[in-house]
Amino acid sequence: MKKRLFTPGPTPVPENVMLSMAAPIIHHRNPEFMEILQRVHENLKYLFQTTQPVVVLSCSGTGGMESAISSIFREGDKVIAINAGKFGERWGELVRLYTGGCIEETVPWGRAIEPGRLKELLREHPDAKGVCLTHSETSTGTAADIRALSAVIREESDALVLVDGITAIGAHEFHFDDWGIDICITGSQKGLMMPPGLALIAVSERAQDVINAAEDSAKNFYLSLAKALKAHSGDDTPFTPAVSLVIGLDEALKMIRQEGIETTWARHESLAAACRAGCTALGMELFSTSPSFAVTPVWLPEGVEWNAFNKALKYSNGITVAAGQDDYKGKIFRISHLGYYDELDMLTIVGAMERALKEIGYCFPVGAGVTAVQQAFLGR
Amino acid sequence: MKKRLFTPGPTPVPENVMLSMAAPIIHHRNPEFMEILQRVHENLKYLFQTTQPVVVLSCSGTGGMESAISSIFREGDKVIAINAGKFGERWGELVRLYTGGCIEETVPWGRAIEPGRLKELLREHPDAKGVCLTHSETSTGTAADIRALSAVIREESDALVLVDGITAIGAHEFHFDDWGIDICITGSQKGLMMPPGLALIAVSERAQDVINAAEDSAKNFYLSLAKALKAHSGDDTPFTPAVSLVIGLDEALKMIRQEGIETTWARHESLAAACRAGCTALGMELFSTSPSFAVTPVWLPEGVEWNAFNKALKYSNGITVAAGQDDYKGKIFRISHLGYYDELDMLTIVGAMERALKEIGYCFPVGAGVTAVQQAFLGR
């Protein structure tokens, strides 16, 4: 059976990226590799829309988040973390680990923090040294208005703006410099269409100054952003990088460059809209009030049991989607369209859902979902 | 842009088959390779449903046809060839080359030879030494009733039954032994889901006797079936085989064995039916009166120009289908569902046709085609 992945990381890897990583390994101190890393560094700036360094760490996205927190903050620092889902919660855990506390603001799942509420928080805590935000919260398929949130922070305080862009970069419009972001992290297995293994972190001048000034007191080593930034200035890495992944990243970044980042963003927005239209046409309700363009969370319809639906998708149709997490396990599921997906893929996933729903006896007009997808792209 | 192939050879190659062929090369006189070839020989018997040898030649399907003709017939032999399309025509060319003449029966494109008409031909030519048939004529997407045709030949004459099974094997029910076939050829890049480069030929006992008795007067060398049969008896090949392709074939045959040949045939029949339903729902007329399960030929609708339609498919949607050939160039086109295709792929191809038709201004209710495909598989 053909297998098709619709999960928000790992995401499908294009054939040319896979092939580039299958080439014989080269040494990371070899000039050939330095040239690749230099090009990767350049293209990462384009991806994040910044003139500032974007470092490549050989770790997961969580490793990237820890790298930022451990390199910037110290015991006793006041940091605000917005928790609107599992990954926002992770910000809080990391902040508590490295500062001893956290101003954690909880937002109901499926909703995004309002800029007005953030303004209140900043006024309550004028001494906050940083605010940790999530651009696209993967667990809830919900996008926050990072541009507006960052503007509020810059207006109200000197706190650094840290953005978890792990499932947003490549899917949502993002301007690191213009929006005044200080830290933004993504992972390779997301919008970058790569296998897992790399975290990419953009670092503003303000953040660099803080990191470099506090380097000696940092409680990290492998994840040190100070070390990574120093090596970056010579287009190098402080430790042995995941060489074949960097080579694949080079290939993936070339693809994004060729598509053009604005087109990449627009594609994700349009795939997400078609996916929502297909789900709605099948009588399913959408979970998020501010839907992400990377992943669409959907309520399971009345009477549809998650295990049966998922089994029908996986074992009869070769399709993997993501389950709901925590309190929403068995209540919602999540369809990813992040990375290497096109419009025909939306037809495939909605068509596969029709097949699975039919198999488990859910009542709907066969073809309604795929027709809605076609109409979303083509009109009537 | 994602590329998706819907052509009747090459056909898409499964990932595990591609990976098996990317492994380091081994030597063809190595016991490891002999073991692979032995398993390939066994599984080819299963594919053709025969206890007779099926030899592996490193050449295209046409090379396989020439191998059969040049190994069996001699100058002056009378051979009947049925020409109902480009590949039937090729039988005639080969027969003329090796015998000096040919009893060629032409059948209008899109139709199959009737067993009754073949009976007449055999009565007119009781001294015919062979009859060359095409199971699925790729140029016209038309299937012949090989079982009935072979029965007529066996009843009426001693002529050998030669079947071009190049796009039929794997797609259409076929029983080499039970149906009394003497020669059947397929190519690797068809139902076998492989890249091009191998021809597979099943040879009956009767045909083996003729080939061996006439070996000394054969005007061939590399394509000698006599040499191939001798080597086959020791699970060997007479000349250096395309080693990596044989390794891939081993993998592909395992997949067919795992699916079960009856299931493989049924899958093709059902994909073809859904494809026809999708085309019809879009207002397109079917070309063949006896449609192949490997490839569906469709009339271009009134006012739809082939070049514009094909460009919209290829350059806007990454889809490759096959054009009409000869007199039907620009009038019909052909959609393949031969080999590594599943039901969701039919949704993709019909969805892509809707997209291309919409782009070039053809009028139809968006979603009608994909709905027909879903209904073909799921009911209403």
UniProtKB/TrEMBL annotation, chains A, B:
Cofactor(s) needed by this chain: pyridoxal 5'-phosphate
Q: GO MF annotations for this entry?
A: alanine-glyoxylate transaminase activity; L-serine-glyoxylate transaminase activity; L-serine-pyruvate transaminase activity
Query: Which amino acids does the record list as binding substrate?
Result: R334
Provide the Aminotransferase class V domain boundaries.
25-325
Enumerate the Gene Ontology biological process terms. glycine biosynthetic process, by transamination of glyoxylate
Give the residue range of the signal peptide. none
Matching Pfam families: Aminotran_5
What is this enzyme's EC? 2.6.1.45
**InterPro entries of this UniProt entry?**
Aminotrans_V_dom (IPR000192), PyrdxlP-dep_Trfase (IPR015424), PyrdxlP-dep_Trfase_major (IPR015421), PyrdxlP-dep_Trfase_small (IPR015422), SP_NH2Trfase/AEP_transaminase (IPR024169)
Keywords annotated in UniProt: Aminotransferase, Pyridoxal phosphate, Transferase
Where N6-(pyridoxal phosphate)lysine occurs, residue numbers? K190
* SUPFAM superfamilies from the UniProt entry: PLP-dependent transferases
Q: Which PANTHER family match?
A: ALANINE--GLYOXYLATE AMINOTRANSFERASE, AMINOTRANSFERASE CLASS V
What family is this protein classified in?
A: Belongs to the class-V pyridoxal-phosphate-dependent aminotransferase family.
Recorded protein name is Serine--glyoxylate transaminase
* Organism name: Chlorobium luteolum (strain DSM 273 / BCRC 81028 / 2530) (Pelodictyon luteolum)
